[in-house]
What we know:
The protein is mainly alpha-helical. It has 2 domains: 1-29; 31-147, Cytochrome C3. The protein is built from 5 helices and 2 strands. It has helices spanning 3-27, 52-58, 104-110, 112-130, 144-147, and strands spanning 32-34, 49-51. It has a two-stranded antiparallel ribbon with strand order 1-2.
Amino acid sequence: MSKKFVTxxxxxxxxxxxxxxxxxxxxxxxxxxxMETKEYAKRTKSLAEFTHKDHIEKHKIACGDCHHDxxxxxLDLKMGDNVQKCVECHKETGKAPEGEKLGKKEKIVKYHxxxxxxxxxxxxxESNKKAGDPKGKGPAPTxxxxxxxxxx
Length: 152
């Protein structure tokens, strides 16, 4: 084999390895992660921890049950797809300002904190009701301290 051919093949192999690494790194989703974002540098409660694995495998929740488009319709996703963080679309991070004239649904669409809490808490309450508790209390956490444990 010629030296040029070997050099060319080595270059192609390195380029493919680099491309595959970049693609994989951009779509990797941690099984468990803290709901941390720079927009919440100051907070009064500890960070909530979320586990994709439990929600998907144990509770049989589809990705689109949480991840949706701008009209609220579920996205057709699978593990490994590249997904934006919630705050990329829900730009306003904190609670709605006092006196703002938006309904609950509009606040959920606009405000990150409202969207996260409504999505998680409403789903957890519904899950608990299906498990037999008419008040929505049960194994799925529904109170502040269940998801935001007191900091040590």
